[in-house]
Amino acid sequence: MPITAHTRAGTEYTPHFLMEIDMEKCIGCGRCYKVCARKVLTLKGVTDEEMIVDVDDEEYEADIERKVMVVADSGDCIGCGACARVCPSGCQTHAPAEAAA
User: Fold this and answer.
1) What is the tens place of the pLDDT at every residue in 35-72?
2) Helix (H) or strand (E) holding 84
3) CA 34 → CA 10, 11, 37, 54, 69, distances in Å?
4) CB 99 within 8 A of CB 2
5) Which residues contact 20 (CB under 8 A, 6 or more apart)?
6) What residue ranges define each of the domains in the chain, with the CATH number in brackets?
7) Residue 6: other Cβ atoms inside 10 A
8) Contact 82, 38 (CB under 8 A)
9) pTM (2 decimals)?
10) Half-sphere exposure of 1 (CA within 13 A, CB side)
């Protein structure tokens, strides 16, 4: 059974949590990062060898070809969907979570 939540007015809804980001579609614009109040996402670099590295890592700084968002802390997602609403590339997958038994 999926987790359900309630709006302030008491209306029941099913939150859809961020499950993954498609690195091929992500353009690294940072819009999702800016709207997420929970620090679920972080910006990473992708090297010419397709390695995911910290953007501040001086060892790989010259090798970074592009930047992408990655899920840093999926457990902190509250399923608000703000990140999906601002994403211009549709690179995120969201799904309801199952309630613990």
Assistant:
1) 999 999 999 999 989 999 999 989 988 899 999 999 99
2) helix 82-86
3) 28, 27, 8, 18, 11
4) yes
5) 71, 92, 93
6) 14-95 (3.30.70.20)
7) 9
8) no
9) 0.84
10) 6
